[in-house]
Amino acid sequence: MDKNLILEVRDLKQHFRINDRLTIKAIDGMTFGIRQGEVFGLVGESGCGKSTFARAVTGIYRPTEGEIFYRGALVSGKKADANAVRQRQIEMQTVFQDSAAALNPRMTVEEIILEPFRILPNRPDAQTQQAMLRQMMENVGMAPSFLQKHPGEISGGQRQRVAIARSLITDPAFVVADEPVASLDISIQAQIISLFQHVQKEHGFTFLLIAHDLSVVRFICDRVGVMLHGKLVEMAPTKELFSNPLHPYTQALLSAIHVPDPVYERNKKILEYDTKTPLGGTFEEIAKDHWLLK
Amino acid sequence: MSEPVLELKDLAVSFRTPKGEVEAVRGVDLAVNEGEILCLVGESGCGKTVLCQSVMHLLPKYSFVKHGSMSVCGEDITHYSERQMRHIRGRNCSMVFQDPLTTLNPTIPIGKQIMEAIRKQEKVSREEASDRAMELLDLVGIEGAAHRFSLQPHFFSGGMRQRCVLAIALASNPKLLFADEATTALDVTVEAKILDLLREIRQKTGIAIVFISHDLGAVARIADRVAVMYAGRIVEIGTADEIFYDPRHPYTWGLLSSLPALAAESGELRPIPGMPPSLLDPPPGDAFAERNEYALAIDYEKMPPMFPVSDTHFAATWLLDPRAPRVEPPIRLKAGSGKWTKT
Fold first, then answer.
1. Nearest beta carbon to residue A185 from set B43, B269, B338
2. Which residue range is the domain that position A213 belongs to?
3. What is the tens place of the pLDDT at every residue in B292-333?
4. Burial level of B264, CB count in 10 A (0-12/13-18/19+)?
5. Which residues of A touch B (CB under 8 A)?
6. pTM of the model
7. Which end of chain A is more exposed for a tag (fewer CB within 10 A), N or C?
8. How close does chain B come to A49, measured CA to CA in Å?
9. Residue B173 located in a structural domain
10. To 10 degrees, what angle do helices A156-168 and A126-139 make?
11. The domain spanning residue B294 has which CATH number?
12. Does residue B63 belong to any structural domain of this protein?
């Protein structure tokens, strides 16, 4: 695989044992890497393991099996490199779907956004922090008057902006966003997507975007991976995937995207895919940069 | 033309809150005919849900109808009591909500829940009701209805549950169905199936459907007519083709240009700036003026009336007044192309 991978997973498995008879295989063998500075989209239907993947790579879960590498160093399991784990902790930031649950209701916006500085080994002094805070508020399009408010006093779109500001304030190298716009209104969605696009270009961080809305992914991502039953079934650059989907599941998923165009929609045929079909075992590169589960 | 199934005349609904009166719906005229699918679109808080719940009389006690009237199947139900409403709900109009899991009772088998809905409205025997419930499960596309009849909701997937809820809503052959974000919580592939199912049911039964959604893609698939709501008022209404291909209101332009699906080629989103106004103290003029780059001076002072564009297409914007300057919409959607082009 290529050298400039910032994150790599090898045969990653995340199983949840419910009881003696039932084990949920949320992630069931994923091997791929995310390159430095790219916007990678992970899509799939609910329950396919997208969010579990986000939680596994950020270190919230301990993987059942397999390895996670961050900047080439092992960060999972017992043999993990402690320095690399620490580095990932500092450089990786997350934006969650439900901003109401992700922000502490008893902290002010200012406290929330500045909190990540606490884990930085050499944090800037208070004055620089304040300057960075003002700049960040401007970047995410919020007036400084919001700083003293609590999350309960502001709207969902504004809360999501605060969550984004919090994740970007330490200038992270890697941002994981788990359905960051799913709970927002269309016009606010567009504002947040534009914001992500803008700040990603400016800061150049690597961005893992998890979404079920394929039109958002198509709009913002460089590469896309399609997940089904805890496995990647196809992975390709966005253009390639949307113009030449090879896996029947990807084809079905793409055919179901709603296009806000009545004539187009009325003539559209939606492909069927029986998700009970057994999946193939090998994930192969069948064309340049186009991977398929066979 | 037969009598409309749902007719709203200058309907206004408000809430009494400690901070004052919140005007959630501010004068809506709307008629829905038999066998028609009307989609209500708009941002959250624009009054879509309040509009439907006020017809169903499901709003809390601190809400009240400020003025106007509503009638279902020619019957004026504006001031109906709870007792009178019980005869209307289910028989004349019913409603499907967003989350099927909270709508269904988790402890009671699906079949029994559908039978309950049938037997509340009609005096039929257990056997008859159970036969009807089977038919309904069949109608909403649940295979192997006989096996699934006695299963509790948690055995079903999200899409299946929503089908069950739909079966309950259709139990007493209503003339009018409100679907409030009924497919929002579902995956795209499942959503598409439910949308097609709704169209199919409309074909079979001639039911009128008011479909609430903020997903314009879903709306494009299902709608005959579309009404765009903003800050408690309908700002534009027309057939689906008119709204998507020839929108006239700047708010509709804004909605269409903030869709990533249509902007995939051009790579540029044009979000509507700002936030909807507070309905605690709505502005005197056009509520959208603050966020509207085409706003005229009069927009801040006077509410625009509905200007007719065609027989079926109306829009409330001063831009349609003969004295207004001519403004070209910023984007145009060519029928069937699936993407917009800048003009």
1. B43
2. 5-293
3. 888 888 888 888 999 999 999 999 999 998 888 888 888 788
4. buried
5. 45-46, 155, 157, 185-191, 193-194, 197, 212-216, 218-220, 252-253, 256-268, 270, 273
6. 0.84
7. N
8. 14
9. no
10. 130
11. 3.40.50.300
12. no
